Amino acid sequence: MLNSLAQYADQILVFNVFRYITFRSGGAMMTALIVSFLLGPVVIDWLKRHQKGGQPIRDDGPETHLITKAGTPTMGGFLILIALVVATLLWADLRNGYVWAALGVTVGYGAIGFIDDYLKVTRRHHRGLPGKLKLLLQVIIAVVATLWIMRLTRDPLATSLAIPFFKDVLIDLGLFFIAFAVLVMVGASNSVNLTDGLDGLAIGPVLIAAGAFGMIAYLIGNSVFSNYLQVHYVPGAGELSVFCAALVGASLGFLWYNAPPAMVFMGDTGSLSMGGALGTIAVITKHELVLALIGGLFVLETVSVIVQVASFKLTGKRVFAMAPLHHHFEKKGWAEPTIVIRFWIIAVILALAGLATLKLR
How many CA atoms lie within 13 A of 80 on its CB side? Predict the structure, then answer.
């Protein structure tokens, strides 16, 4: 929206700064952060008043959660979404279709998560939407978004998979690309959801991954930088840097209230939407495989659940004391802040490794 002021740069020179993605990205980050700080207390107070018992705590989870987390309100992801959407609409170029694709998936998945959280709170049970219905809704949104992204993206990138470390390798998946992109979006969404189990555990890696993809989007959306780095140029994708910056600002603002001990949980409203946002950005920037590296912590948490379930069904034995992985370390006696900070460190290392793939070609 504010980028339209650039057309008056001839009359008012200072408006020229609105042409630059870097300036608008900084503005989006600060706007999302300020919105989070201003609305945070209001949203949390409203959630407390309407959620008398807070988020229902699972009986089969760590025993300490029944004491330390009881009464804490959920649906805090609503605060993230408000800050993200306001900052993006204010600072991004709204003529860019990729921005609307990212916003559409994020808000759509947030709506699914909101319904799920609402059912959990009103029923006073940890089960919300039926798993199959939730998955179906996620797939439908992802299919629509993928078809829109394919329409916006020029050939041969529209249906191709780019391979990291190889500058000229593109694998044309044809119509199978739709299924692949849906898998990336839905998989990323549910991986973040599985990671969201401790105060600050999910939001930290989300903002780290968003920062990394903001840089990737800026570079692959710039013909000069993409040519220098020998990565595939995606015209228009640079505008997603503004969206990613807004996501970083919104995440930082939410972390202020979600840091241990949390004043509010993001719930499925936040985890599903944040994961969907990362998956959509990865599909648009043709860095789907790099997402598995940058978001490696989410992958690790998901794999731990798969391994745990498979092992128990096949052998009757559990590999971990409890899954997802962060609960395993809780059972081993690690303090919650220790787990969270160490997982953040791992997320930073993986993000740096993912960014390194830009140069290692």
Answer: 41
